[in-house]
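stage 2 :: seqdesign
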C-alpha cells in the first residue's frame, strides 16, 4: 500500500469519526465551551511499570532513562518495578498501566503483529492488543498480511511496518544480544539455542556417566505454574514445549511436522483454506491414547475455554492470535483431523499448527468460572486460564518428575515418544533425550548463574544473561576449555508500551513525541554495554524490514532531539506543544 493511499485511509477514518462526533454533540457545544472555560487543567502525570533489577536489569534502566526524559519535558512520572508475573498480570490481564518497559519475545515473524495490534482483539485480555489500540488503516494492513500470498507478503509487511512506526502503539528500543553459556564436558552438540525446546532433544551425551542435564533459569515462573495457556507465566515456553506436543515445530525459519506426520492444503468451495493433518501414534503421560478428537477439542477450547458455558467466548489469551485463524476443526478418523481457515493464506495459517495440543479428558473439566476460596471471580475468566497445572498431562518428549516452587522443575524422558524415531524434516536435528533427567534450576542472579556454570554444577543457561557478566564468562572460558560462551542476535526486542485507551496516550502525536525522547544509540551503550542493536521497528533484525526503516545511526522516522544522550529540552518540548499541549510553570498541561 502506498504512503498516499495509507494517509488517505487514515484521514477517511478520522474524518468519519469526527463528523459523527460533531453531529452528535452540536446542541451541547456551547455548554462544552462554558465548562472548558471554567475547568483548570492539571499537570500531566504518568506511571511507568517495568521489571525490577534482579529480574531484568535492562528494562528498569530503560525505564529510568525514559522517566528522566519525561521529567525534563515537564511530565511528572512514577516508576513501578514489579515482579514478572505481577507485571504481566497488570499489563495483559487487567490493562492497568500508563506506560511500561519490557522485552517482547515473539517478534521474528510478521504474523505476530495481527493479534498484537488488530482492533478485533481490543476488548480481550492477554498478549493480543494489550495497548487497546484502534486504527482502521492498521486493521486493513493486518488483514492484508494474513491474506497475502508468499510473493505479495514483503510489500504488504513493509507497508504494515511503516504504519506501526508512524502511529507508535509501542516504541521499539533495541534488540539485545543473547548471551548464553554452556559446558561441553558432559553434553555436546548445542547446535540449537538452549532457549529453544529442540536444543534439549538435539544434544548428545559426551560423558557416559552423565545422567542429569542441568539448565539454569533466571525466571522462576515455570517453577510456579506449568499451564501452557497462562499468559502471565509464559514467555518463550521452553519447559511447557517439552511437556506438550504441537502439530508442527518451527525450525530453520519454517514450521515443520512434529506430532503431525504431514499436512495437505486445499481450497474450499467457498474460497477458504483447509489443512488435512495426519497424526503420529502418541500417548498422553497418563497412558491414554492421543487421537484426532483431542486435536479438534484443542482448537475449539483455545477459541473458547468455557466451551459455550459463558455468555460470551472466553479465549485462551496466550494463543488467541493463532487459534483465531482456525474457523473449524473436525475429525476425519482417529488419526486425521481437518482444520478450516477463513480468508487466510498458507504462510499465516501455518502458524496455527504450532499451538500445544491438550488432552480433552483433562481440560474439559476446567471450563467453569475461576474461583478464589470457593467464590466465583467472573465469567470472563475460566478455571483453565488460572489453573497452575502442577501435575501436567501432556504428550511431549518429557514428563514432569518433580516440581519445587521457586527452586526447580525436574523432567524425565517419556517412554516410546515418537521423537526417538522421528522421520521427516526434523529427523536430522532431533536425536531424542540424551539424559535421564533434565533439571531447570532457578538462580537469583546472572552472577550466580556464571558461578554455577564455572563450578561445573550446571550445563547450560536456559535464559539469556545480561551483558554485565560477559567479561566473567569469557574469563571462565579462557581458563576452562569445557566452558563455551555464545553471543547471538536475539529475536527479543525491548519496547515501551502505551495504554492508548486513555489520554494523553490516546493522542498519536503525544506518543510520537514520547518516542523521540530515548536516544537509542546511547541506550545501547549505556544500558546494554554495546551488546544490542538499536531499532525503530519490529522485525528489524529480519529480512522483512524495508530499507526505509533501516537504522543508520538514528531513528529514520522519529529522530532523537539531541546528541549523545543529551536531550535538547526546548526542541523536545516543542514537539509536545505541536501535539496540542501547553506549559504552565514548567509543567506540561493539556490545553
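stage 2 :: out
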Amino acid at each position: 500500500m502506498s504512503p498516499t493511499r495509507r494517509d488517505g485511509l487514515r484521514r477517511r477514518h478520522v474524518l468519519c469519526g469526527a463528523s459523527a462526533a460533531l453531529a452528535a454533540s452540536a446542541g451541547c457545544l456551547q455548554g462544552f465551551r462554558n465548562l472548558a472555560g471554567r475547568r483548570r487543567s492539571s499537570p500531566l502525570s504518568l506511571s511507568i511499570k517495568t521489571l525490577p533489577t534482579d529480574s531484568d536489569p535492562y528494562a528498569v534502566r530503560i525505564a529510568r532513562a525514559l522517566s528522566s526524559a519525561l521529567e525534563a519535558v515537564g511530565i511528572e512520572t512514577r516508576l513501578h518495578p514489579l515482579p514478572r508475573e505481577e507485571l504481566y498480570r497488570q499489563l495483559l490481564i487487567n490493562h492497568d498501566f500508563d506506560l511500561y518497559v519490557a522485552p517482547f519475545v515473539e517478534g521474528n515473524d510478521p504474523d505476530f503483529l495481527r493479534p498484537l495490534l488488530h482492533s478485533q482483539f481490543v476488548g480481550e485480555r492477554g498478549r493480543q492488543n494489550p495497548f487497546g489500540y484502534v486504527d482502521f488503516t492498521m486493521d486493513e494492513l493486518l488483514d492484508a498480511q494474513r491474506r497475502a500470498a508468499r510473493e505479495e507478503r514483503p510489500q504488504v509487511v513493509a507497508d504494515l511496518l511503516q504504519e506501526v512506526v508512524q502511529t507508535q502503539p509501542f516504541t521499539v528500543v533495541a534488540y539485545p544480544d543473547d548471551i548464553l553459556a554452556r559446558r561441553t564436558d558432559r553434553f555436546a552438540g548445542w547446535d540449537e539455542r538452549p532457549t529453544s525446546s529442540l536444543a534439549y532433544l538435539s544434544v548428545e551425551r559426551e560423558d557416559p556417566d552423565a545422567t542429569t542435564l542441568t539448565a539454569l533459569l533466571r525466571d522462576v515462573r515455570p517453577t510456579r505454574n506449568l499451564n501452557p495457556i497462562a499468559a502471565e507465566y509464559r514467555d518463550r515456553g521452553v519447559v511447557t514445549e517439552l511437556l506438550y506436543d504441537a502439530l508442527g515445530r518451527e525450525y530453520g525459519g519454517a514450521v515443520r511436522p512434529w506430532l503431525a506426520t504431514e499436512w495437505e492444503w486445499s481450497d474450499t468451495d467457498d474460497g477458504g483454506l483447509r489443512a488435512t493433518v495426519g497424526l503420529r501414534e502418541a500417548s498422553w503421560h497418563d497412558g491414554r491414547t492421543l487421537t484426532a478428537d483431542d486435536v479438534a477439542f484443542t482448537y475449539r477450547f483455545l477459541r473458547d475455554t468455557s466451551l459455550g458455558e459463558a455468555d460470551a467466548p472466553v479465549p485462551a489469551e496466550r494463543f488467541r492470535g493463532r487459534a483465531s485463524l482456525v474457523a473449524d476443526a473436525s475429525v476425519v478418523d482417529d488419526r486425521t483431523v481437518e482444520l478450516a481457515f477463513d480468508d487466510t493464506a498458507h504462510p499465516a495459517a501455518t502458524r496455527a499448527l504450532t499451538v500445544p495440543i491438550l488432552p480433552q479428558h483433562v481440560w474439559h473439566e476446567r471450563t467453569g468460572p475461576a474461583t478464589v476460596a470457593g467464590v466465583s471471580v467472573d465469567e470472563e475468566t475460566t478455571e483453565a486460564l488460572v489453573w497452575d497445572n502442577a501435575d501436567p498431562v501432556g504428550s511431549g518428549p518429557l514428563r514432569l518428575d518433580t516440581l519445587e516452587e521457586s527452586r526447580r522443575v525436574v523432567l524425565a524422558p517419556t517412554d516410546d515418544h515418537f521423537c526417538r524415531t522421528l522421520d521427516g524434516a526434523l529427523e536430522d536435528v532431533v536425536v531424542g533425550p540424551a539424559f535421564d533427567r533434565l533439571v531447570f534450576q532457578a538462580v537469583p542472579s546472572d552472577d550466580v548463574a556464571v558461578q554455577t556454570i564455572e563450578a561445573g554444577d550446571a550445563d547450560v543457561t536456559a535464559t539469556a544473561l545480561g551483558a554485565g557478566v560477559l567479561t566473567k564468562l569469557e574469563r571462565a572460558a579462557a581458563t576452562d576449555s569445557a566452558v563455551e560462551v555464545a553471543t547471538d542476535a536475539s529475536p527479543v526486542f525491548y519496547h515501551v508500551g502505551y495504554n492508548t485507551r486513555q489520554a494523553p496516550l490516546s493522542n498519536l502525536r503525544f506518543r510520537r513525541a514520547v518516542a523521540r525522547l530515548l536516544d537509542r544509540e546511547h541506550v545501547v551503550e549505556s544500558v546494554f554495554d554495546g551488546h544490542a542493536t538499536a531499532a525503530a521497528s519490529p522485525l528489524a533484525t529480519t529480512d522483512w524490514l524495508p530499507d526505509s526503516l533501516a537504522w543508520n545511526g538514528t531513528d529514520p522516522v522519529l529522530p532523537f532531539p539531541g546528541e549523545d544522550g543529551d536531550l535538547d529540552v526546548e526542541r523536545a518540548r516543542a514537539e509536545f506543544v505541536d501535539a496540542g499541549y501547553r506549559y504552565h510553570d514548567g509543567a506540561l498541561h493539556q490545553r
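stage 3 :: structure notes
- Confidence is low (pLDDT under 50) at residues 2-38, 373-377.
- The longest helix spans residues 3-25.
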